[in-house]
Amino acid sequence: MIILGLNAHHADASACLLVNGVLVAAVEEERFTRIKHYSGFPIQAVDYCLQHAGVSLYDIDHLVVGRDPNAKFKEKMAFFVKAPSQLLKKYFYDRFINAKDLKTIDKVLMAHFKCDKPKFKIHNIEHHRSHLASAFYPSPFDKAALLSLDGSGDFSTAMRGIGDGNKIEVLDSVNFPNSIGIFYSALTQYLGFMHYGDEYKVMGLAPYGKPIYKDVLSKVLYPTNDGWFKLNTQYLRSPHEGYVTYSDTFQPIIPVLYNQNLVELLGKNREPSGPVTQFEMDIAASVQAVTQDVIFHVATELYHKTKLDNLCLAGGVAQNSVANGKILANTPFKNLYIPSAGHDAGISMGAAFYASHHILDSPRQAPIYSAYTGPSFTNDAIMDVLEKNGVAYKYIPDDLLLDKIADTLIAGGVVGWFTGRAEFGPRALGGRSILMDPRRTDAKEILNKKIKRRESFRPFAPSILKEYVSEYFEITDDVPFMEKVFPIKEEKRALIPAVTHADGSGRLQTVDKNVSPRYYNLIDTFRKKTGIPILLNTSFNENEPIVNTPQEALDCYLRTSMDMLVLENCVIQRN
User: Fold this and answer.
1) Topology classification of domain 2-132+344-359
2) What stretches in the chain show pLDDT beneath 50?
3) The 3-state secondary structure of 206-230, one letter per residue
4) What is the torsional sign of CA 124, 127, 130, 132?
5) Looking at residue 264, what is its pLDDT?
6) Cis peptide before 118 (omega within 30 of 0)
């Protein structure tokens, strides 16, 4: 049985393919269009998935879309009729166009693939059910509590449930506009970070401040007695005006979400070009503190409802790795699983799994600890690209290559590392990474000068060999997708300053030799030379989606000051 899952006409459009219940391919459309958070139809992602599996549209048994326009119909209508008359017409028009796009997905595929009579059956799976499924079915748990938290999708902003074997039971949910994600986005804008997806900048800024405005911000978002939360919309633009729009190039655009009431509550907002002062740092710390407390409150109530030790978490808020690293210490849960694409790109995977297991009752497969589900390229294909570009390179076998890379890193070099299949999700996990020596105190400055050109307060992450986590971190856990932040042991911080954040923490990725053997061997080679089982790992990009092809990796290398580019076994190095 072959199932094609889609997140379409929504931010972070993506596609995935299941063959007999096994995830064989998954990728975001932005990797092909080169438009961050692309929100159109993921046709190139579908192309890749089918080509990788060697199948055609005629072979697809089930087409599953992670959106259900009919979900919460009554709640939507009750919300719409409260809109001012001048906004009501626009709202219905926007929703009509979006629903129409969703209903023509099969026709778009049929036209693209010139397939007039496909056999697939179409399923529409509610946004947050797809999030729950994306976290539960790939997890190692037979039974678990499920939690989805994000901005909004299908008129829900959060959902709780229970996963048991093949089935998911939804317990309760929260309706738009009450939203943790909207709260965090509004304060992100207040701090002067205006682009869709800039929330991680607030998370990076927070450790430099103190949460002295926590009580004030608790007037905007606060926990409720039913185990959920309330967003006080008097500090935001009217939700009837809409919170997300899309450009002609399908890039998500968020209008200014906060209003003058928030400015009067907190003080003057930062302009995007203005300096970041201690005030902004303290606001960021307070936003993070309020958000964490609400997450812990919601999760704790879920535990009391389910009495289960295992928690599966997804949704855009599940990308808050700082909060994730504190959940087990602040709730009764004992185990936590978060997928590699916890954000909206994971909707395609979750929808497909929901159809496979909950609807079709197919048996679950092995837990997923690998995010390598995207495109890969052979050495021959890479050499063809390099020769067409007239670039001099050397082919070096692995037994010599890893030593050469480690020596370059030890000498202070910045290395672009392109190997195997691309990762599914927002993190580079050793497939499309830029690497540096974590022992350097000047690593952040070098990276920002040569490549990244990003804010100085944003940290870089450590990839650590799985066996050494307990030596370097105060909490020992498997973190395959770089989805949690843990405190680094105080005596180790001076050894790895490049990946130690201002509060002594690190957003780690545990590297398993059975999941990432080549990346593991590279880090182990570095360990044998330095005694440090860690590399600084950041995404292979420069203010763009993570590179997807050898040409894109080469282009990034040529327009930056990267010292070495490694494309499988092909090496380019500046003098």
Assistant:
1) Nucleotidyltransferase; domain 5 (3.30.420)
2) none
3) HHHCCCCCHHHHCCCEEECCCCCEE
4) negative
5) 98
6) no
